[in-house]
Amino acid sequence: MLEIGGKRVQMAEQPADERRKNFRSVPLGYTVEEAMVEAQRCIQCEYAPCERHCPVRMKLKAIIRKIATGKFRDAFLIAKQDNPIPAIAGLVCPQEDQCEGVCPLACHGQGINIGKLEAFIAQWAMDNNVKEEFHIADKPARVAVIGSGPAGISCAVDLRRYGYGVTVFEALHMAGGVLQYGIPAFRLPKDIVDYEISYLEEIGAEVRLNHIVGQNITFEELRREYDAIFIGTGAGAPQFLGIEGERLKGVYSANEFLIRANLMKAYLFPEYDTPIICGDRVGVIGAGNVAMDVARCAVRLGAGEVFILYRRTRKESPAREEEVQHGLEEGIIFVELVSPVRVLGGDDGWVKAIELQRMRLGEPDKSGRPRPVKIEGSEFTMDLDTVVESLGTQPNRLFLDKLPQLDKTEWGTIKVDDTLRTNLDGIYAGGDAIRGNATVILALGDGRKAARSIHEFIAAKNK
Question: Helix 150-162 to helix 440-461 angle, to the nearest 10 degrees?
Answer without folding.
Answer: 40
